[in-house]
Amino acid sequence: MQSLLLSWLRLRSLLGKEFLQLLRDPRMRFFVLVPPIVQLIIFGYAATFDVKSAQVGVLDYSRSKVSRDLLADVTATGHFDLHYLDNMSQAQQLMNRNEVRAIVQFPRDFDRSGVVQLIADGSDSNSALLVVGQFSQALRHSALDTEHIAPPIEIEYRAWFNPNLEDREFFVPGIIANVLLISTMILTAMTVVREREIGTLERLMVTPLARFEFIFGKIVPVACVGLFDVILVSTVAVVWFGIPFRGSIVEMFFGTTLYLLSTLGLGLLVSSFSSTQQQAMLWAVFLIMPLVILSGFAFPIRNMPEIVQLVTWLDPLRYYLVVIRDSFLKGGHFGDHWFQFTAMALLGLTALSVSAWRIR
């Protein structure tokens, strides 16, 4: 009985100490309250598979009243933005630039055959399946309410870039981007914080070593590790999983270098706010989760609320996912990704500049 009482007294003292230490530190209070709320809001609004404002190209060769009525009913659902095009070449260019997610084609004999062709961008298999499914459902519901169609509507499916709509070909390139984000960001933060913990950071700062030299010496080895990870994971993706690589290796590594500017800059920024490696890890996890969710890795950005879509413009992972996935599945050239390259360069230079200012 006495041993149980002593055990309870020790446990009570330990619990009291842990709670006091947890609530006394402002940073720990922040991590206890703010991250769960932020992640709840992000998951609640951004993590959705509902189709909203999906961009769809329309090739209406029949130009009949029936096809116009069907398309009007589809537009009335509010889930699709239709772009009327003149020919397949124009539609293909829009899909290559990710400006439309699908193409619906009504043949000239649509009134007689009732056949509709629906072409989806298979490089994003999740979005393709969702858009095809909901667009087909909307067409069928509209056809049931339309008395002018004699034969039932028959929808023919076709996917570009990923004909079988395999999730592996969509997710594996995205995993490369996520691995690069997590490894380089955490590793950069840890290397700087470790110097601070063991007391060598102050010694480095009093040497003639310039701030730029210190930062450069910290990020270059990590950048080399990141590039090695890209080579390793890409090789496994192609050789083991059979993921096709149709783009330019030079373009992919150029985009990777620009992306590393952001991940390394964020890692340095995390280290400037952290005194211990545990704090650096907490900060890194707090930043990584929203970056992944808001990047379009799993949930289409167009499905998110407009205010959340505005926040995604600050996410470097969003732009790199386009580059890495297009390199594997679509091919393309430098000119197809100039916007993504520019955005990653601006975000990366901003992150490094702020980090250099913060590290004293």
Walk me through this protein's architecture:
The protein is α/β, with parallel strands linked by helices and 360 residues long. The protein has 2 domains: 54-160, 3-Layer(aba) Sandwich (abc type-2 transporter like fold), CATH 3.40.1710.10; 167-358, no CATH class. It has helices at 2-24, 26-46, 65-76, 88-96, 110-113, 125-144, 167-197, 200-205, 211-239, 249-272, 277-293, 306-312, 316-330, 338-358; strands at residues 54-60, 80-84, 102-106, 115-121, 154-160. Strands 2-1-3-4-5 form a 5-stranded mixed sheet, sandwiched between helices.
Draw up the topology in text:
Elements: H1 2-24, H2 26-46, E1 54-60, H3 65-76, E2 80-84, H4 88-96, E3 102-106, H5 110-113, E4 115-121, H6 125-144, E5 154-160, H7 167-197, H8 200-205, H9 211-239, H10 249-272, H11 277-293, H12 306-312, H13 316-330, H14 338-358
Parallel strand pairs: 1-2, 1-3, 4-5
Antiparallel strand pairs: 3-4
